[in-house]
Amino acid sequence: MPAYVYILKCNDDTLYTGYTTNIKNRIKMHNLKKASKYTRGRTPVKLVYLETLSSKSEALRREYAIKQLSKEQKLKLINSQSQLKSF
Fold first, then answer.
1. Which of 15, 2, 6 is nearest to 57 (CA)?
2. Residues forming a β-bridge with 59
3. C-alpha distances out from residue 70 to 23, 25, 33, 49, 62, Å
4. What is the mean pLDDT of residues 69-83?
């Protein structure tokens, strides 16, 4: 089952990084304020980066690596990816 690592841009211009196995539902839950404490007060959120990985363990490792990046490095990563389709 594929897993996804994603970056959201929050309403206050902060970035949130997470992982999931169901990206559409996860974004919906973030915007319903039911997915994470961090995004709960920062809705609406917008998906700005998405990676597909082959397993949950790979996704967790990649999520950790992205979380170690500075905001500037995350913005470069986001800008390096082509446009995302809407979820």
1. 2
2. none
3. 24, 27, 25, 15, 15
4. 90
